[in-house]
Amino acid sequence: MKKNIAVINGDGIGPEVIAQAVRVLNAVAERYKHQFNYTYCLMGAGAIEQTGNPLPDETIEICLNSDAILFGAIGDPKYDNNPSAKVRPEHGLLKLRKSLQLFSNIRPIITYPAVQHLSPLKETQLEGVDFIIFRELTGGIYFGKKETSPDGTQAIDESIYHVSEIERIAHIAFQNARLRRKKLTLIDKSNVLETSRLWRKVVQEIAQQYPDIAVNYMYVDNAAMQIIINPKQFDVILTENMFGDIISDEASVLSGSLGMLPSASYGVCTALFEPIHGSYPQAAGKDIANPIGAILSAAMMLDYFQMHEEANRVRQGVSWTLQNKFFTKDIDPINFYFTSTVGELISDYVIHKITDEVNQENVELRKSTII
Ligand code: IPM
Ligand code: MG
Question: How far is the CA of 179 from the centre of ligand 2 (A)?
């Protein structure tokens, strides 16, 4: 199969982790005889520096003409502490989501036994945690009217949702629940917010079309607590933009490292795949970031291309590196492997250059080619 992929490295560690995701995609192409063509484009702080615009039109054009988009990370400390900055790297990402109508953001929360000890939660609470967050991505408070009064003493962020925006993502979440443990939790704040009451009404109506799915409703404050005290209870979570942003960061700590979680954003005509971690500027250029979030995002892209065997092979490669303790610095600050080594190991695994059996002595030497 031939696919055109738009690649946006973005800021901070973005270029390093994306380089490893591309390396793994190239391994997939080699092993399964596919052709992946990459077109690199700008977005974020780097784009502001080079063009004055966090999302140049050319990037939108390239993305629209691609089969999928692979994206690294966005954000730069230069803008974080400057609330009056006129242009911000994040504006680029928000505009891209809106321009491409990437309304459905999917964040699977998986735990790996090999790294469970890194989670602040007890290991017994983490066994078997496996849920998936469907976050609405192009509406709500992120995209409503924003205003500051002329004297600068008051600010407004409006949150708007239309029934159709709720329906389209709700159907996707219900359909996904059918393929899983058949449970869907809507997270809202319907005791306070009008938009949340609309979400609840629409989801209750849609639920009638999915009698096989057990639906429950939870206020976001309670959900924030439940994700910590009993994360196993969740299967599919459906929620609006802002709540999804917050609870997905919260849920990511269950996995032990934020660096390992992927995400996908599906739209009307294309889809974007990105690790959920940020740009981690302190680590940029040091070859120490965890590339697994980016590599698993590439696996989600392969699933989107209907290349399920290929996607599973990549996931097996990731599990294999974790089982054999090829950890990056976020997981093991003392005996760590570099970003590029972990990427190389996973690519080698994908093309069967290395077998499941690992020679522990060679592992100590940290050289994938001799394993
Ligand atoms: C995310 C990020 C973004 C968001 C930022 C970078 C604008 O936190 O993808 O979760 O808030 O959606
Ligand atoms: Mg976020």
Answer: 26
Nearest CA to ligand 1 atom 10: 245
**How much is the pLDDT for 123?**
87
1-111+257-371 CATH choice from 3.30.70.141, 3.30.70.20, 3.40.718.10, 3.40.1390.20: 3.40.718.10
CA distance 201 to 166: 10
Q: Which of 8, 55, 74, 90 to mutate to test the pocket of ligand 1 (most atoms within 8 A of CB)?
A: 90
Residue range(s) of every CATH 3.40.718.10 domain in the chain: 1-111+257-371, 120-240+250-255
- Tell me, in angstroms, the distance from the centre of ligand 1 to residue 245's CA: 6
How many C-beta atoms lie closer than 10 Å to residue 141's C-beta? 18
Q: What angle do CA 53, 242, 189 make, to 5 degrees?
A: 160
Residue-level pLDDT at 83: 80
Q: Does residue 74's CB lie within 6 angstroms of at least one atom of ligand 1?
A: yes
- Contacts (Cβ under 8 Å, ≥6 apart) of 174: 184, 206, 207, 209, 210, 213, 236
Helices (H), 282-338: 292-304, 308-323
CB 237 near ligand 1, within 6 Å: no
Please give the distance, rounded to the nearest whole angstrom, from the Cα atom of residue 196 to the centre of ligand 1: 21
Point out the ligand 1 atom lying closest to the alpha carbon of residue 90: 7
90: CA distance to ligand 1 center in Å?
8
Residues 6+ positions from 302 with CB-CB distance below 8 Å = 25, 28, 308, 310, 311, 314
Distance between start and end Cα atoms, the chain: 31
Q: Taking the chain (371 residues) in consecutive chunks of 10 residues, what is each chunk's mean pLDDT?
A: 98 98 98 98 96 96 97 93 86 96 96 88 90 98 97 97 98 98 98 98 98 98 97 98 96 90 94 95 96 98 98 96 94 94 97 74 54 49
pTM of model > 0.85: yes
For the 120-240+250-255 domain, the top CATH level (class) is alpha beta
Which residues form the catalytic set? 142, 189, 221, 245, 249
* pLDDT for residue 366: 55
- Decide: 45 in ligand 1 pocket, CB within 6 A: no
